[in-house]
């Protein structure tokens, strides 16, 4: 009899795991509580435009996602964003981030675009970092401690913090370097300096843009994955929530859709909170709710934005707005600019510790402050708010913590398509990798 596998969660991680098991000959069922596939890589409609509800690009630090897209028939639709710098808006100034660098760490501190931000003195100090002895770097060293001690306060506050806090929703002093990539402390020790590490990491990235998108939205990757899973014989049950899970008699018993299904292997492709509810023996992070993020999309009739005054996106610092970041999507993606037919699409990101807060009420004022142009509510043609829980999950020490149990995606502490697809190519020990 074929092995039976139940995957809880129909996002990219769950669909990838489902295909892997199906190709190994298992009988696979995917349970997804929502009525659409893709999770944080899904679509929603705003003013007649089909837009990404979650992620809208993927990192190209490896070729994993691009290769996946090509394998799904989307290679011809991979697109690079418009080449404009991101901006930072603080309470007292607005400035463009240097184009060269890695995680905000400048590889050429004396370049004019770096000096314009941090000044001559700080740039010279940062340029001398390569020659300073590195000393001991603990595996749990934080980004804040390393950058401040090696490159100075201005580099940390004005270049690195805006980039990383927008991604990880944590202060630099609470963000371990290993949380970005578990191998980074060892890579730093091998490189001998932060500047050299940044240079090496940039050199390892594929040529071209640091991120790519898909014409029409990267939700198309998830939809193509769902179609491919069906072709591989996977049973997809949308609108079906896993209500409870019991381990008994060497198998997993999952109650869902008014009945109980039994599996030899259970794959959890959910948030840590849902995984912990279904399998209480898991040690889930209690602070996950504090990493809840709300994305507010506005479709604007705003000719003042035609010139993209703040490039393709803005990072906010020091509480200058309730939003922590903004993406000017029609300035970033040519295909969307053409589809919007003269309107502008902007998306604001908010940390949302209180799920009842109406962050959309701040969106127009925040967008005006970050973009540096006057905007008024009558210019909003449509808006949509989406809330994602556990936006920056904590990595788990073991992705197979119990017999017959796999954790993938957010449940494994992974965020971002590059990390999720890359991990599937390096699966849990004992399982074959898939291209």
What does this protein look like?
- It is a single chain.
- This protein has 3 domains: 4-44 and 53-76 and 215-287 and 393-425, FAD/NAD(P)-binding domain (3-Layer(bba) Sandwich); 101-204, Orthogonal Bundle (protoporphyrinogen ix oxidase, domain 3), CATH 1.10.3110.10; 293-388, Alpha-Beta Complex (Polyamine Oxidase, Chain A, domain 2), CATH 3.90.660.
- The protein has 15 helices and 20 strands.
- By secondary structure, the chain is an alpha/beta fold.
- Residues 428-435 have low confidence and may be disordered.
- The strands form 5 sheets. It has a 7-stranded mixed beta sheet, with helices on both faces. A 5-stranded parallel beta sheet has the order 10-2-1-14-20, covered by helices on one side. The chain has a 3-stranded antiparallel beta sheet with strand order 5-9-6.
- Helix 1 packs parallel to helix 15, helix 3 (112-118) packs across helix 4 and helix 5 runs antiparallel to helix 6 (153-168).
What's the Cα radius of gyration? Answer: 22 Å
Q: What is the β-strand count?
A: 20
Output the CATH homologous superfamily of the largest domain: FAD/NAD(P)-binding domain
Q: What is CATH's topology name of the largest domain? A: FAD/NAD(P)-binding domain
Task: Indicate the CATH architecture of the largest domain.
Answer: 3-Layer(bba) Sandwich
The CATH top-level class label of the largest domain: Alpha Beta
DSSP helix fraction: 25-40%
Please report the distance between the alpha carbons of the first and last residues: 27 Å
Taking all residues together, what is the mean pLDDT? 90
Shape: globular
Strand order of the largest sheet: 8-7-16-17-18-15-19
Task: Flag low-confidence runs.
Answer: 428-435
Give the oligomeric state.
Answer: single chain
Structural class based on helices, strands and sheet pairing: alpha/beta
